[in-house]
Amino acid sequence: MASTLTLTRNARERGYAVPAVNVLDDLSLRAVVAAAVEARSPLIIQISVKTVRSIGTELTTTIFRLATRDVGIPVALHLDHCPDRSVIDDVIAAGWSSVLFDASDRDLATAERETAEVVAQAHAAGVDVESEIENIVGVEDGVGSDVALHGYSVEELAAVAERTGADLLAPQLGTAHGEYHAAPVLLPQRVRDLAALTDRPIVLHGGTGLSAADFRAFIDAGVSKINISTAVKTSYMRSAEAHLAQARAKDKWDPPSMFRDISAAVQAAVATHIDEFGSAGQA
Ligand SMILES: [Zn+2]
Q1: How far is CA 97 from the centre of its chain?
Q2: Judging by beta carbons within 10 Å of its beta carbon (0-12, 13-18, 19+), is residue 155 exposed, middle or buried?
Q3: Are 37 and 72 in contact (CB under 8 A)?
Q4: What is the C-alpha separation between 248 and 80, in angstroms, rounded?
């Protein structure tokens, strides 16, 4: 299992971002890995709390280990937005690469204290920690809020990170989870300001719906991990929907051929992002 911190530090030095892609099952996991292998890109596979609860930590870990064995590219396994310490305990014990401890629902003092505890626990097991203490707007798999409740200055963010020892930082950058219904006000300058205060890799959430130029502006400003979730869900479900419409028209019901269609659609969506993030050929 690759180190999330090593992958993102390399990316920051070399001027690209590592695609960090949420998967839902073995089918989407294998499609995302295939896209990264094809492009020779480093990769971070992300699992939401909802998904790890539905599949189970042990099965998720085993599927990941078997699906990424001997693929010839570095792949990390990361727990996405997790405010629940018991789930973090589980994946640290299972030896995942990293966790996002999402303390954005706590006040600053509590967020800092709990993040420091999670960092100490994770580091003792060789696990990296992404820290989120500001809200990233939008609800993703049942976690999050549509209202920005907690926001701080970049100086505060850098100081808290220094005290907690968190490895990666997920600040509010104007993006949101889910589909955009209005054009977002993006904040690449905030990345530049934060990157001037800390060398910790900076993570962009809510990547689905941004243009190639938006991604480039964020990467040039210092973002080295970009999260993609909604694009996988929509390509997965729309290809399934198209397949089922055809199956109904022909009255021909063959699940493996639907899996092939879904896999091709997810792989194509991720390949586009790998191109945009500049990570092709970096594995
Ligand atoms: Zn997120």
Answers
A1: 12
A2: exposed
A3: yes
A4: 36
Per-residue model confidence as pLDDT tens digits over 78-96: 999 999 999 999 999 999 9
Q: What distance in angstroms lies between residue 254's CA and the mean position of ligand 1's atoms?
A: 35
Name the amino acid, one letter, at 169.
L
Distance of alpha carbon 143 from alpha carbon 5, whole angstroms: 24
Could you tell me the pTM of the whole model? 0.95
Q: Is 69 helix (H, G, I), strand (E, B) or coil?
A: coil
Ligand 1 center from residue 67 Cα (angstroms): 24
Burial status of residue 185 (CB atoms within 10 A of its CB: 0-12, 13-18, 19 or more): exposed
CA dist 95 and 74 (Å) reads 16
Distance between Cα 253 and ligand 1 center (Å): 36
